Amino acid sequence: MLPVTAQGSRYYVTLEAETAGDGSSWDNxxxxxxxxxxxxxxxxxxxxxxxxxxxxGKIYYVPDKLGYxxxxxxxxxxxxxxxxxxxxxxxxxxxxxxxxxxxxxxSGDIGKDDAIDATNLI
Length: 122
Prior knowledge:
Blueprint: E1 10-13, H1 32-38, E2 44-48, E3 50-51, E4 75-80, E5 92-93, E6 96-100, E7 102-103
Parallel strand pairs: 1-2, 2-4
Antiparallel strand pairs: 3-7, 5-6
């Protein structure tokens, strides 16, 4: 059974989830594509990020040729280390909420042939 928040269900996503779990926890995470497909309005999708330098060019979320389409009313959050139980627990750099220690990068590089670095994050 998925955890129920005040808004709806929550789905956990990691890159390691090559075969989709049910998304009910970090240990049973699903793929981003599966979570987006399953989520309904008022649901949340929590996406695991990765610490530098992994986030630069090595590990990031890339859609298939059709891309990702997020449904109206679904909330998508990134920047998680993969152990949080509250969104406010996401680690930040220098106490700045906009500087996540674990970066979640969703790239539009469907061909996986573009460069990605500290200044070119999508």
